[in-house]
Amino acid sequence: MEVTNRYITTKAHIDGKPEESDFEIKSETLVLSVQPGSNDVVVKNFYVSIDPYQLNRLKSFSSSQKASSFAVAIAPGEAIDAYGVGKVVASGNSEFEKDDLVVGLITWGEYSVLKGEYMLRKLDPLGFPLSYHVGILAFSGLSAYCGFFEICKPKKGEKVFVSAASGSIGNLVGQYAKLLGCYVVGCAGSKEKVALLKEKLGFDDAFNYKEETDLKSALGRYFPDGIDIYFDNVGGEMLEAAVVNMNAFGRIGVCGVISEYTDAGKRAAPNMLDVVYKRITIRGFLAADFMNIYADFLSTTTDHLRTGKLQAIEDISDGVESIPSSFIGLFNGGNTGKKLVKLADE
Questions:
Q1: Integer Cα distance of 160 and 226 in angstroms
Q2: Distance from the CA of 325 to the CA of which of 109, 144, 158, 217 falls in 20 to 30 A?
Q3: What residues are paired with 7 via a beta bridge?
């Protein structure tokens, strides 16, 4: 059987803010079969993840491209791999059979042909929507969990600040922190997102950073007794403002620096005297470093979801043609929660 597979590529390296004109939809005829004795697997894609870090892979150069196997460069014209969920339609690998649900690295397209070494496993949905296994129960959720609990090492009653708090990771960090008994303030880029944080997700307070002319003073208002933990998703001026307001022995978990991804000249310059004299710990991390706690993360998170203590916030677009605009929207504040694209009905 043959099908037409539409998939997304870039026309050239993207070294600034991504635009629709940077992308194109390619088509290919795909035979839904594999060579006998091969290790190949053909997957029909159901959901793919849309993540800001992918921009660094699409640049002509980023230091991240050599730092992690998950961040290797993607050349113009190449298929773009991303985490996702799908169904096996053909397999030469004895571990997978036709119609198996699978999760792993697939592509920004309608089908994925996986050859050689690949990251894929069978999926037990555990009674949850398949989309959850691309977001809250996958690397977004694990990033929030390991970043908060393993990197920031919180204690009940501590004061926690989360930037990009309505995003795929930030909203979960805030919810985990509230479940532990922390005081939590988040920032976001619209009044609707601020309302979501306070009214639906239980943050103690939240503010629209776009309405603040002085971020250092703003954080001083929301944290008159200082910040114990800052979960950083944005870098730039927000990190600088947080450091000024950190308490002694404060911890900063650096998950992402999205404000710096589209501007090569923008770099955070925190007051290093504060870092030294307040004995602040600033540590970057990758979720892949914490696969050893994945079982604990999954057990805890699924329990909280089943009891309603944790909310899954998703932002889902439909069709392969929506992938470029979905990706671009990440850098314009266009998403609320985990950004996904649905490529086919389950």
A1: 9
A2: 144
A3: 26, 109
